[in-house]
Amino acid sequence: MKKLIHILKGWGKVLGLIAISTAESKLSEIRLKVCRFCEHAKAKRVFHFVNDEAIVGHDLFCTQCKCPCLEKSLVVDEECPLNKW
Predict the structure, then answer these.
(1) Residue 47 above 70 pLDDT?
(2) pLDDT at residue 56, as a whole number
(3) Which of 16, 8, 57, 65 is nearest to 38 (CA)?
(4) Domain range for residue 54?
(5) What's the maximum distance between 2 C-alpha atoms anywhere in the chain?
(6) Alpha carbon separation from 83 to 38, 63, 79 (Å, rounded)
C-alpha cells in the first residue's frame, strides 16, 4: 500500500495536482543528479501533452525498481533501491 501511495504522490506532484515545496524541489534535483549517472537509469521515449499537442521527450526510469526517476525523486520518504539516495 505504501508503494501505491508513493506512486500517486509522485504523479500528483508532476501533474501539478499536489504542490511541490522548495525543499522537495531541491531534494529532487539532488536525487536526479545521482540517477542521471547511475548505470541502472535508462532513458525511455515518452509523450507529453502540452496544450493538446503531443511532444516527444525522454524520461529516466530505474531498471531496478521500474519506477520513473522524476516521480520517485519528488516523494520525500521514498528511497533508491540501491541506497544511492
Answers:
(1) no
(2) 65
(3) 65
(4) 2-73
(5) 39
(6) 12, 14, 7
Total domains present in the chain: 1
Q: Are 65 and 59 in contact (CB under 8 A)?
A: no
Distance CA(81)–CA(55), nearest Å, equals 30
Confidence category of residue 48, pLDDT binned at 50, 70, 90: low
Cell of 43: 532513458
Q: What is the pLDDT of residue 50?
A: 64
Q: Is residue 12 part of a domain?
A: yes
Task: Tell if the pTM clears 0.70, that is, is over it.
Answer: yes
Residue 60 forms part of a structural domain = yes
Residue type present at position 63: T
